[in-house]
Amino acid sequence: TVVAGTTTGLNQIVEQLQKKPILVVEEAAKMAEYNLSLFVQLAPTKIIMIGDVMQLPPLIKNKSLDQESLLSKSLFYKLINRYPDVIVLNKQHRVPTQICNLYRHVYFRHLPSNIATVIKDAKADDKDSIHYLEVYGKMVNETNLNEVREIIQLFNQLKLKYQKETVTILSFYKQQALLLSKETQQRCFTVDEFQGLESDVIILSMVSRRPSLFSDNLNRNLVAFSRAKIEMWVVGDVYEWENEICQNLLQLK
């Protein structure tokens, strides 16, 4: 019997689940350690954890608690840093080659030596798939109206080429995503919300010319730049962004 669900949903029926199961944990790098501990009572015979520690970690809102217990470091993260017996999948099947080139070496530079790798393409291509639309503007209350106006025009143009459901708009900031949802009459997402998902076309609203530690975070940018299956449009001004993915984007100009 195969039972699938979120940790919250499965926790509600954990007493009804079969004992000594094989436990498969997807998005393990984003799962807090206490979420996984709920299933210890099942005495699993094997735990298979699948994840990407270079993407976003668990979100712990209590910063003092996090500093004391390192809860923002998932069990998955702690295990791969301690044990060498890790299976590394280094071939990606989603994004076009040009987009992957922006972050291809991130895993080699930032992962422990036992799993450091350069990402390969399952099928290389020479498509012009990444586009940088330079838009100046000031961030006010986590929104950038200049970017909103440009994105509305871009979205309308892309709808002539793609079905609108296959074009997804992302932003690093919740208020910008809400404003874009209102103006385009289509749900837009924050980058954090869209981890684990994909879309044929991604429009990314950068919002701020001078990024915060939150928006310039390498893990968060890796999530943002690894969602598109066909093409990606980056809208904003990234000249002062310091993470290496945005720096690589500037080199394409």
From TrEMBL:
> What Gene3D superfamilies would the database entry show?
P-loop containing nucleotide triphosphate hydrolases (3.40.50.300)
InterPro entries tied to this protein? DNA2/NAM7-like, DNA2/NAM7-like_C, P-loop_NTPase, SF1_C_Upf1
CDD domains listed in its UniProt record: SF1_C_Upf1
Superkingdom to which the source organism belongs: Eukaryota
Which ranges carry the DNA2/NAM7 helicase-like C-terminal domain? 71-237
Note the Pfam families from the entry: AAA_12
Q: What is this protein called?
A: AAA domain-containing protein
